[in-house]
Write a structure and sequence with these properties.
binds adenosine-5'-triphosphate, Dna Ligase, domain 1, D-amino Acid Aminotransferase, Chain A, domain 1, single chain, binds magnesium ion, globular, ATP_grasp_subdomain_1, Rossmann fold
Length: about 300
């Protein structure tokens, strides 16, 4: 098969592992920087060009679209879909998962356990928003935050009010969320491929930090997840429409709650912690599922 990996950098661990395993399985792989693709969208025959040449003959696309290039990156994936090329995660699903509010709304509609979460554009009724989320202690998050930056624990209602007002003053969109204290600075990353959890890890925050992010000094280790966690992760990925997903779960007293679903989950941490060759599993999934014109949406909407 001729496979296109849409990635900004072929030296990234995840990208190079996918290349290595695809080649090992006998495929021809091209790493293409989506930001350097250009397209003709008015033609009846959609095409994508890269370095002066049309991209042709691909059987599958693996999008590795970072959060900072979602807008243009998903346009390139959508163009591939319009050309009938199979994408392991479709553009619509990637866009959906990048919008945290939309994701939480979709997951809650289908009965997935979530931390009680409030959001508001206006700062006029901050105290009511705090009450809506169950009162302090509360976690306040920048919608655009990543790697634990912009995730704050407010222990009292006064602190919560100050943090919310400060963030809103900076014109940032925020979420206000019930603090799952019993999660104990730990979260679980379930790596889902094709409707199965193929690897899982538990991340533990450094002492004194409730955030488990590796970038904030957290550590990852292998973990055996419960059947309920497994089915929650699988259902969350399915609701988002993602074949490949990293589902982040907290262990709450009342069962697993989903924090978010990632559409381009990294491979390095999960492979190291679980000992699984996740890249190989992704390529194997593509081998059995890639078909010309097989897209749910063909870039619709
Ligand atoms: N409601 C919560 N209750 C308890 N702990 C939480 C809660 N929300 C987040 N945390 C902890 O903080 C960490 C960071 O939060 P979150 O994953 O939402 O933000 P992020 O990592 O900055 O964003 P992203 O995952 O999109 O990069 C989580 O991994 C988890 O350990
Ligand atoms: Mg996170
Ligand atoms: Mg994330």
């Amino acid at each position: 098969m001729k496979i296109c990996i849409l990635s900004r950098d072929k030296n990234l661990y995840s990208t190079s592992k996918l290349v290595e395993n695809a080649e090992k399985r006998g495929h021809e792989v091209h790493v293409i920087d989506p930001l350097r693709c250009y397209m003709n969208i008015t033609s009846h025959k959609p095409s994508i060009h890269f370095k002066g040449e049309p991209l042709e003959g691909f059987s599958a696309v693996i999008p590795r679209i970072g959060a900072s290039i979602t807008f243009y990156g998903t346009a390139v994936v959508r163009q591939f879909e319009m050309m009938g090329v199979y994408s392991v995660n479709e553009s619509v699903a990637i866009s959906r998962s990048r919008d945290k509010l939309r994701s939480l709304q979709l997951l809650s509609r289908r009965g997935i356990g979530l931390p009680v979460t409030g959001f508001s554009h206006s700062t006029m009724y901050t105290q009511d928003l705090i009450d809506l989320a169950g009162g302090a202690p509360l976690v306040i998050k920048l919608l655009e935050g990543t790697q634990g930056i912009g995730v704050v624990l407010a222990e009292t209602n006064n602190a919560a009010e100050s943090v919310i007002e400060a963030f809103r003053g900076l014109k940032q969109n925020i979420l206000v969320q019930e603090f799952i204290k019993e999660a104990n600075s730990q979260d679980i990353r379930c790596f889902v491929v094709g409707g199965k959890v193929v690897a899982a890890m538990m991340r533990t925050g450094k002492v004194g930090d409730f955030r488990s992010n590796i970038h904030r000094g957290g550590k990852a280790e292998k973990i055996k997840i419960t059947p309920e966690e497994r089915s929650t992760a699988v259902r969350a990925a399915k609701i988002m429409g993602l074949n490949v997903a990293g589902v982040d779960i907290l262990r709450a007293n009342h069962g697993p709650v989903v924090m978010e679903v990632n559409s381009s989950p990294g491979l390095e941490g999960i492979e190291a912690a679980s000992g699984k060759n996740v890249a190989d599993i992704i390529i194997a999934f593509i081998e059995t599922n890639a078909q010309e014109g097989k897209t749910k949406t063909r870039g619709n909407g």
